[in-house]
From TrEMBL:
This is Uncharacterized protein. Keywords: Signal. The keyword Signal applies. Residues 27-51 are annotated as: Disordered. It comes from the Bacteria. Residues 1-19 form the signal peptide. PROSITE patterns: PROKAR_LIPOPROTEIN. It comes from Micromonospora aurantiaca (nom. illeg.).
Length: 159
């Protein structure tokens, strides 16, 4: 029964992610930062230039990570198999990547919300039932906070 609950949640996330795809072009400075951060997570210490990342650049990079994770999620859903284990791994990776990205920014609203979301995604990914664990008020609040901060910064996201 729990697996039946995970599928609609995952499908909703994927559909919302696809619906959020717009004509907006990602920042040329944010794309490579997210890519290099995911390629070497333990050695990617924030540099002085990365610490100066604007909220708009931060949000653009975060949305790119979010879309990447949603694509992985859709692949997992379509492939079938052990959704619980694979969903946990995706949530954990999402949490790690978002937290790492947020660490390259200051203490603005977007960075703070991304840190909170990353922590919640990590907890959900480590849970016995990640789909159910991700469906909680703290993660929902962090998602709304990211979306609100990024909307204000001029780079809407769909977390």
């Amino acid at each position: 029964m729990k697996t039946n609950r995970i599928f609609p949640i995952l499908l909703t996330c994927a559909v919302l992610g696809l619906a959020a795809c717009g004509d907006e072009k990602p920042s040329t400075t944010a794309g490579p930062a997210a890519t290099s951060a995911s390629a070497a997570p333990s050695s990617a210490a924030p540099s002085p230039s990365a610490a100066a990342m604007s909220d708009k650049e931060l949000c653009t990079a975060a949305e790119k990570i979010n879309k990447d994770m949603r694509a992985k999620l859709m692949t997992v859903v379509q492939a079938g198999g052990d959704l619980t284990k694979k969903t946990g791994a995706i949530l954990t990776e999402l949490g790690d990547r978002v937290t790492e990205l947020a660490a390259t920014a200051g203490d603005g609203k977007a960075a703070t919300a991304l840190k909170e979301f990353g922590a919640e995604a990590g907890k959900a990914g480590a849970a016995a039932d990640p789909g159910t664990a991700a469906d909680n008020p703290a993660m929902e609040k962090a998602s709304k906070d990211i979306n609100a901060a990024c909307q204000t910064a001029g780079a809407p996201t769909t977390f």
